[in-house]
Amino acid sequence: MSMDCKQYEEQLLKLLENEDNISFFYDLLDNTLWNNYKDRKELIDYVINFCEKNGLDEALAWMYYFLGWHNYEFSNYKKSIELYKISKDIFTNNDNKKGLVYAYNGLIAIYCQNGQYELANELGISGIAIAKEINEKNLVAKLLLNTSITNILAGSYEYAKEILDYIINTHDYDNLSDLYKVVYNKALAEIEINLGNFDAAYKSLQYAIENNNKMGVNVFTSELYKLSGCYYGRIAQIENAEKDFEYSCQVATDNDYLFEKCEALIEWAKFKFDYGDNDKAVYLLNEAIKISNENRFYRIIKNSSMLLYDYYNKIKDYKKSLLNLELYLKIDREIQNYNNTSYIGRANNNINKEIKLYRILHDKTEVLSYIGQKIISTLDVKKMIIEVNNEINKLVKTDFFAITVYDSDTEEMLVTAFEENKLDVKPPIKVETSSTFTAYCIKNKKPVIINDIRVEYKKYVNKISLEGRGVNAPLSIIYLPLIIKDEVVGVMTVQNLKVNAYDIDDVNRLKVIANYIAIALKNAIKYEKMEQVAVYDSLTGFLTKREILKEGNLQSEDFRNSLKYFCILMIDIDDFKRVNDTYGHIVGDQAIKMVTQTIGKLIRNTDFIGRYGGDEFLLICPNTTMKTAYKIAERIRKTVENTKYIIKDDIDISTTLSIGIYEFNDKELTFSDGVNRADSSMYNAKNNNKNKVVAYK
Q1: What does pTM read for this prediction?
Q2: Which residues does 542 contact at the CB level (< 8 Å), separation at least 6?
Q3: Has residue 73 been placed in a domain?
Q4: Cα(475)–Cα(465) distance, rounded to whole angstroms?
Q5: 555-586: per-residue pLDDT in tens?
Q6: Above 60 in pLDDT, residue 51?
Q7: pLDDT tens across 406-446, in order?
Q8: Is 240 within a domain?
Q9: Which listed residue, 183, 289, 400, 679, has the most CB atoms within 10 A of its CB?
Q10: How many other CB atoms are there within 10 angstroms of residue 406's CB atom?
Q11: Are residues 469 and 549 in the same domain?
């Protein structure tokens, strides 16, 4: 039966006298009518129509706010945020601080659904400050509660509990309505489950379920039985868990609460994974993704795809793992784009600052993809580590970064860290005898995630130094094992001097980077092992680094026996990184091949040349003095300088060479010493405008 809205005609007429009389309707909607969504929607539309006809802007803003919540409850988030934006703008223009706090409260919910927990927290803080200013204790309690829920969704359970404790200690709990007391206990139950305090979780759950049953709020029924399923799953009561997850989904389905159904499906899937029913877990996650694709539930898709990515990675189905990784990145990018187009200013109206923050969030997904491509494209471990170090701060705040390479043959780990902006390679350490966080990751194939090392380190290691923590030693740390095909190839760590420096989004982004690094590290190690047995470089046809060094050692031995001088030339292609960055690595490889063909034609039959690095080449000229070697080097340099390399019809490249020469004439030196001197001369050429031949003096 349709609601008789005409019974409220007298109250509507009072709005013409004073728009503050809208309080009658928002009290009615916030309490009596909220559980009856049909009557609620009819009344909202009826009041909106009256306000629009009579130009009652502030009253209209309140109705837009409630219509926003109505749409939010039925997962129409795009419409919901539009309505919140309108109400927020009207309240701001009319200096209606109470209304502004309500609008912020609605926006917090939207940011949470989109996974933008930092923004939700900032709005919560702004809203609480305004609510305290106007002495609205009920609003303060609501905003504190919603801020706690934001932190639950972000995985910050300890902080979320601190906020709930604050609500109790300041007596703000007493200011909550019965409905919000259910919300409070629901939130507390979720925190206690995740902290492992199961008795406390059960107590809060029972209170929330009993009181919700009296009120009949179906959306809470679905959420509460989802939590009950989580609780029973954690204490290994499998039948009860199954029953409650199923009931949660059924209630959500019957009432068309699609978002709540998807959240229940995800938790049910986690439970299934925990107890080995992987096929059912995958089915549930795919069902959640299907519903979410139809309704643009971005956070659900993001969380589901990450769970599927982890699962397929674990069972070595790398094709499906990659597909879900790509979906995760795509959705993460869409979330940022959505927030860019749905920009809403904060209380201080610092628009430029807000837009900059959105841009940073958007850029993180771009950086993620960019770093991934850079990592995979290099086969040089040190270069890869340098690339990651240069870019990682664009993703997460880090005061310390390192990558450890693990050699399973020797069971040793080699830590490569950046200290004072310099790459420092530590001596090898045996994993078996090490009690470090890195060794823990390698031995257990599990991450280490610590918000405050002073109180959490004992979960992973027995003893650490706490001296200087927070000043010159990190407090927040993340260690992620680099795993490919169930084999640990290394460990990545980022660390920060501050407590609670990283959130769940940071961890997920770093997991993506770790996956890229694992692939690249495996390829690089494989490449280096292949290089150890190969004689000729596959791209240039020159000797491999191993072979040219072997030949050099023979030449130095011969010199010690016969005193026959020889010269070492280090050749480097100038600014070659620019070629790769401009045209890509395929064109870059073709250019290297063509340049080395030129060099190969200009050296003598008695000379030896090898590929020393990516675009570096080592030339050994036996029985050769500095004077002759200099002529050879100049001939090579000039020819390359005057040659245009046509890669494709639309791409031609001109380049130059920097060449350093050392005449080997000292019995006390090793061949490696001679290479270092030629290399030093080559860098002198680089530092003096390049395109030069420099002899060692």
Answers
A1: 0.50
A2: 536, 548, 596, 600, 609, 610, 611, 617
A3: no
A4: 12
A5: 999 898 888 889 999 999 999 988 988 888 88
A6: yes
A7: 888 888 888 888 766 667 777 778 888 888 899 999 999 98
A8: yes
A9: 289
A10: 23
A11: no
